[in-house]
Automatic annotation (TrEMBL):
Top-level taxonomy: Bacteria, Pseudomonadati, Bacteroidota, Sphingobacteriia, Sphingobacteriales
InterPro entries: Alpha-L-AF_C, ASD1_cat, GH, Glyco_hydro_b, Glycosyl_Hydrolase_51
Enzyme class of the recorded protein, top EC level: hydrolase
GO molecular function: alpha-L-arabinofuranosidase activity
E.C. numbers: 3.2.1.55
Family (UniProt): Belongs to the glycosyl hydrolase 51 family.
Domain Alpha-L-arabinofuranosidase C-terminal: 463-650
Organism: Mucilaginibacter terrae
Keywords: Glycoprotein, Glycosidase, Hydrolase, Signal
Catalytic activity: Hydrolysis of terminal non-reducing alpha-L-arabinofuranoside residues in alpha-L-arabinosides
A UniProt-annotated Pfam family: Alpha-L-AF_C
Signal peptide positions on this chain: 1-20
This protein's name: non-reducing end alpha-L-arabinofuranosidase
Length: 659
C-alpha cells in the first residue's frame, strides 16, 4: 500500500514539474515601446441622466425655482389660513422675458405666524441638509411698496425647523431686484425641505428662488456639488465628454441641447424638459427638467479645474432616431453648423470677438483652449453622413486644428456600424466614436478587438461602454465586481492598442439612488452621500496609471488576452521612470505568474502590487463604500524577475521603479 502511494505521489510530482516547465513566464520588454499613450487616454463621460445635473452635480436645492416646469407649481406646496383664492398666482410675462416668463405673485394681509401663509419646496427627492453647514438663499423680487418679511426655514421630513433666517426685501418700485440671506443647519437631514413663511401685509412677485450649500466646489456661489466633482478630480481624467448622450439629440429637435441657451446670466437661461422625463415608462420622471445652471461655461470651467480636456458634443441636425428621427433639411443646416463654429470662438476666441467677449463677460477672459468636438451622438445612416460632411468642411476650413469625433452609431458591429466605420475611414475622420453596452462575456471575449485595427487609419474613441449583467436586478447592485472585472480585462486590450484607441470613457457617470432611470452607472449618490462602484475603482486605476508609452508584453510569444483566464498589458511612465503592468485573473483560482523584465535599466529591489479582488457579486454601497477597492502590498524583485501572486477574480497593477 505504501509503495503504491509513493508511486502515485512521484507521478503527481512529475506531472507538476512538467506543467511548470510548460508554463511560460510573462515577458515584458520594457525597452520595446510599441505605442504612445495619449494624455487623453482615460476620461469620463457626463450626461444629465439619473438626476445627474439638476438634483446632482449642479448643487441647487430648489426644484422648479423659476416656475417654468410644465406644471408651474410642481415641487411647491402653498398653505396658510390667511391665503384666499387668488392670493398666490403664477403669472406669465410672455415676450417680455421669453426665456424665463413665469413668476409667482403672493398677496398677504396681516400674516403673523407660519400657519398664516407659506410656500414650501420639496427639493429633488428631498433636500440633503448637513449640520453646521451654511446655506445661501437668494431671490429675485418686485414689490410696489414694502410691507412683507420672508422667514426662511430648513425643515426635516416632518416640517420641524432645523435652520432659519430672515430676508426683508429692502427695495420697492417697478423693477426687479435680487437679495440674499444665509441660514445655518443644526441637524443632518437626508430628505428635508425648504419653507418661506410671510409676515406682514403686502404683495410681492418672486422669481429664481434659490438655495445652495456654501460648500460648493471651490466655494463658487451657485456652483457644483463638491463631493461629486472631487470624485472626478481624484481620477485625474484626460478629458470630460459633455453634455451627453441622448440629450444632445433630444426627443425632437425642439428638445435638443442648444449650448448658446446655457450661457450668460442664470435667470436668462431657458429651461427645457429633459428627454429622460418621458423615456422610460417603468421609471417615470415628470419633474425632470434642465435649468442649465450647469451650462457650457460651467462644463469648460470644471474641465479646467480638474486638468481635463473639454470634449463637447453638438447636435448635427438630427433628433434621436429611436424617438422621432426628425431631421433638419440640408439647406437649413446653416444655423447648426454656425453653432459649432461659434462654440470654438466662445472657447478659444479673443475677448474682442463676439463669443470670446461673452466668455470674458462670464469671468474667464483667458481662452479654454478647446481642441476637439463631437458632431452628433449615436447618429447613423446616410442622412448622418451627408450632414457630417457639411459640418466637417465648414469646421476644417475655419479651424483645421480642431479634431472632430464622428459617430459609429449605437452598436460595435452590424450593418450600421460597418457602413459608418468604412465611410469614416475612407473620409479620414479624426476619431470614430464606438459604443458598446454588452454582457461581461462580450468584454472578456473582445480583449483582442483592436489588435487587428489599422494603426495608421482614423483613431478610435471608445466613447460609451459598460458591462451589463443579465438576470441581475437593476439599480446599484447591478454594478458588481463581475462587471468591473470584465471591463478591466477588455481595457488591457484597449491599452495594448493605444495607437488605435486614443480615448475611452465609461458611461453613464452618475446616478441618484432615488432618481435613476438607467443602470449600471459608475458613481452613485443620494442627497448627502456618494460612493464609487467597483467599476469606478477599475477606471480610476487605469487613469492614474496610464503611463506614457505602451511596451511589449507577451506569454509564450502571444498577447495575453484570455488564455488561462489571464489578461495583461504594460506601459512605461517615462516621467516617473516606472514600469506599470496590469494583470487580470478572471478565474476562480489563484495563480502565480513569473514576470521577466527585459530592460537596459536596473529594477528596484521591491515593487508595489495594487490589487482589487472580491466575490463576483460583491458591490459597494453607502454603508460600505470601499468593500471592493484597491489594496497595496510590497513584493520582492529578484534581478529582472518577480513572482506575482494573483488572487481569484482580481485586477492587479504592478509598479516597478526603473533605475
Amino acid at each position: 500500500m505504501r509503495r503504491k502511494f509513493l508511486a502515485t505521489a512521484c507521478a503527481a510530482a512529475l506531472t507538476l514539474s512538467a506543467y511548470a516547465q510548460k508554463s511560460h513566464p510573462i515577458i515584458v520588454n520594457a525597452d520595446k515601446l510599441t505605442a504612445k499613450v495619449q494624455p487623453t487616454m482615460w476620461g469620463v463621460f457626463f450626461e444629465d441622466i439619473n438626476l445627474g445635473a439638476d438634483g446632482g452635480l449642479y448643487a441647487e436645492l430648489i426644484k422648479n425655482r423659476s416656475f417654468e416646469f410644465t406644471t408651474p407649481l410642481m415641487g411647491w406646496a402653498v398653505k396658510g389660513k390667511k391665503i384666499a383664492e387668488g392670493d398666490v398666482l403664477v403669472l406669465n410675462r410672455q415676450e417680455a422675458a421669453e426665456n424665463n416668463p413665469r413668476y409667482l405673485q403672493v398677496k398677504v394681509k396681516d400674516a403673523e405666524t407660519p400657519a398664516d401663509a407659506t410656500i414650501t419646496n420639496e427639493g429633488f427627492r428631498g433636500m440633503g441638509i448637513k449640520k453646521g453647514l451654511k446655506y445661501d438663499f437668494s431671490v429675485m423680487y418686485r414689490q410696489a411698496s414694502k410691507g412683507l418679511k420672508l422667514h426662511l426655514e430648513l425643515q426635516d421630513e416632518n416640517g420641524k425647523s432645523v435652520g432659519s433666517g430672515i430676508l426683508t426685501p429692502n427695495e420697492s418700485g417697478i423693477g426687479w431686484n435680487k437679495q440674499s440671506a444665509s441660514l445655518m443647519a443644526n441637524t443632518d437631514i437626508k430628505k428635508g425641505k425648504f419653507q418661506i413663511w410671510f409676515e406682514g401685509s403686502g404683495s410681492i412677485d418672486l422669481d429664481m428662488i434659490s438655495l445652495f450649500p456654501a460648500n460648493t466646489w471651490k466655494k463658487r456661489p451657485g456652483g457644483l456639488r463638491a463631493d461629486m466633482v472631487q470624485m472626478l478630480a481624484d481620477m485625474k481624467p484626460g478629458f470630460v465628454r459633455f453634455p451627453g448622450g441622448c440629450i444632445v439629440e433630444g426627443r425632437d429637435l425642439a428638445n435638443r441641447y442648444q449650448w448658446k441657451k446655457t450661457i450668460g446670466p442664470i435667470e436668462e437661461r431657458e429651461l427645457i424638459m429633459n428627454r429622460w422625463n418621458t423615456e422610460f415608462k417603468h421609471k417615470p420622471a415628470p419633474d425632470y427638467f434642465q435649468t442649465f445652471g450647469l451650462g457650457f461655461f460651467e462644463y469648460f470651467q470644471m474641465c479646467e479645474d480638474i486638468g481635463a480636456e473639454a470634449l463637447p458634443i453638438l447636435n448635427c441636425g438630427m433628433a434621436c432616431q429611436f424617438n422621432t428621427a426628425e431631421l433638419v433639411p440640408l439647406d437649413q443646416l446653416g444655423p447648426y453648423v454656425q453653432d459649432a463654429l461659434d462654440l470654438v470662438e466662445f472657447a478659444n476666441g479673443p475677448v474682442t470677438s463676439t463669443w470670446g467677449k461673452k466668455r470674458a463677460d462670464m469671468g474667464h477672459p483667458e481662452p479654454f483652449n478647446l481642441k476637439m468636438m463631437g458632431i452628433g451622438n449615436e447618429n447613423w445612416g446616410p442622412q448622418y453622413l451627408e450632414r457630417l460632411a457639411i459640418f466637417t468642411k465648414a469646421m476644417k476650413d475655419k479651424y483645421p486644428n480642431i479634431k472632430l469625433i464622428n459617430s459609429s452609431g449605437t452598436d460595435p458591429d452590424g450593418a450600421r456600424f460597418d457602413q459608418l466605420n468604412n465611410a469614416h475611414r475612407k473620409n479620414k475622420a479624426d476619431f470614430i466614436d464606438e459604443h458598446y453596452y454588452r454582457s461581461p462575456e462580450w468584454f472578456f471575449s473582445n480583449a483582442t478587438r483592436y489588435d487587428s485595427y489599422d494603426k495608421n487609419s482614423s483613431k478610435v474613441f471608445a466613447g460609451e461602454y459598460a458591462a451589463h449583467n443579465k438576470n441581475e436586478p437593476n439599480g446599484p447592485n447591478i454594478n458588481n465586481w463581475r462587471a468591473a472585472l470584465s471591463e478591466a480585462a477588455f481595457l488591457t486590450g484597449v491599452e495594448r492598442n493605444a495607437d488605435v484607441v486614443n480615448m475611452a470613457s465609461y458611461a453613464p457617470l452618475f446616478a441618484h439612488t432615488d432618481g435613476w432611470q438607467w443602470s449600471p452607472d459608475m458613481i452613485w449618490v443620494d442627497n448627502t452621500s456618494i460612493y464609487g462602484t467597483p467599476t469606478y475603482f477599475v477606471q480610476k486605476q487605469y487613469s492614474l496609471n496610464k503611463g506614457t508609452n505602451v511596451v511589449d508584453i507577451k506569454k509564450g510569444n502571444k498577447v495575453i488576452a484570455g488564455k488561462d483566464s489571464l489578461y495583461a498589458s504594460a506601459v512605461i511612465d517615462q516621467n516617473k521612470n516606472e514600469l506599470i503592468i496590469k494583470m487580470v485573473n478572471a478565474s476562480n483560482k489563484a495563480q502565480t505568474q513569473t514576470v521577466q523584465v527585459k530592460s537596459a535599466k536596473k529594477l528596484a529591489s521591491t515593487a508595489i502590487l495594487t490589487s482589487i479582488a472580491n466575490d463576483l457579486k460583491a458591490v459597494n454601497s453607502f454603508d460600505d463604500a470601499t468593500k471592493v477597492s484597491p489594496t497595496d502590498e510590497r513584493i520582492d524583485v529578484k534581478g529582472k524577475n518577480v513572482a506575482v501572486a494573483l488572487k481569484p477574480y482580481s485586477v492587479n497593477i504592478l509598479h516597478i521603479a526603473l533605475k
